[in-house]
Amino acid sequence: MTLPKALRHVQTQHGDDTVDVENIFLFRADINCTNDGATSAGGASTEAEAVTATATEAVAETSADVKAKSERTKPLNCVWTYEANEASGSQLATIAEESPMQLPEKRKASQADESVVESKKPKLETKDLKATRPGFSEERFEETSYYTENGLRKVYPYFFTFTTFTKGRWVGEKILDVFSREFRAHPAEEYKRSIEAGTLQVNNEKVPVDYRLKHNDLLANTVHRHEVPVTSQPIQIVHMDEEILVVNKPASIPVHPCGRYRHNTMIFILAKEFNLKNLRTIHRLDRLTSGLLLFGRTSEKARQLEQQIRNRQVQKEYVCCVEGDFPDGIIECNEPIEVVSYKIGVCKVSPKGKDCKTTFKKISQTGKYSIVQCKPLTGRMHQIRVHLQYLGYPIVNDPLYNHEVFGPLKGRGGDIGGKTDDQLINDLIIVHLPATVSTATTAIKKSPELQKTVSAQTGYESPDCSFDPSKVTTDPHCLECKMNFRDPNTADLVMYLHAWKYQGVGWKYTTDLPSWATMDQDNWQLNLRKDIC
After folding, report:
1. Is 286 part of the annotated catalytic residue set?
2. pTM above the 0.85 mark?
């Protein structure tokens, strides 16, 4: 399926080869509210945000928030679940959080206009960016802070301004018409309210609802953001010097801001808690994948390692747990992989795909599960997961590729049940829609235990991660402020795929094995959850 240019996923920092997308599994809150005599259902929105964290620029996100309700709406019961929304394609737009462009002065705002949202609107960084690039400014890191609860790292809700420049097709149209059509998470009445209140601005100015967009207009919409919890498992520093940082990434934490994740990402956590800032992203891992993650601390080192990866001079070794008794010996899979949809982030084996090669070797076998060593010789999106699916030995808890949505054989041998790409995409979206929660849940409360997450290697003291009620912000127009969330299950935060060893020209790094796979005197042991075994 080929998506229109406007809908193509924008997380392809390094092209299709290494794109790291988990859009179909963005957390979402679903609402089931019962009123007097009638029941109405409303859905919380997803935000399509794509960040290209290169050594020279940081690109932030697209906004699509929840439908605003009345201030008198009673607290609702909901749950963080995985969400995919095909209709949200119209909400995709490249967002410039820090743009090197200096806007021309179209008009000067009056003092009255400037004070409308001054109290809560974050400052837009559109000038003097050479001093802050790469990465994010100190002001961005201080937008909010963390607290830990029930083994989860959580973020206090905060106000954030999404920005985008006017697209060519929008020029001459009314701002209200554009937002109502292009960003469908809100009804037109909500955008009208935001424009009139001054939280949706053009070039940092309040404008009337009938304002017609011009070339290079900077649109800014201030919203109240609620991020998704991730694991509070400590980030281990494998190696650090003046040029490079190597860490062991816990599962569930994205590498850089994307979707509903911003502060709960490796880039922000390392900056805020380890004081390791201006890191250059060299490669990426899927959100649910754990293991080795390399960052450059200098642009020269980052370019050097990126070049090694591009020239396939880096040997990568992963370990995973798959269903079934994996065959003995070296198993090689050379099937080409095609990206079915950039928007939801799903691939399949296809003759139209790009050349791929992965070798597998069974290390151990316990019952009906096997521990397998994986060596990807190319770097395609979801390569290991797709090749294991094709071989008929999917990762045991892969929420995407180990599912009957790919047909009765779960995609084995490339058999997806005769579905077209459009049918597969629609079925994936339906399958992963969130379930309604009708049981009562508890609101934010203080965590009884403090989870330390800062290594002594950085010389930076760990912050206090206990819950502080004074840090909680609210917005009367934010629907999520009126909802109570149930914490995600531990099973939703991990996939049994771990980046174990990386070796390049003149360097080699290895991590400890994850808790689900241990090795004692060269004998592998599999420690799976009871609900899987």
Report:
1. yes
2. no
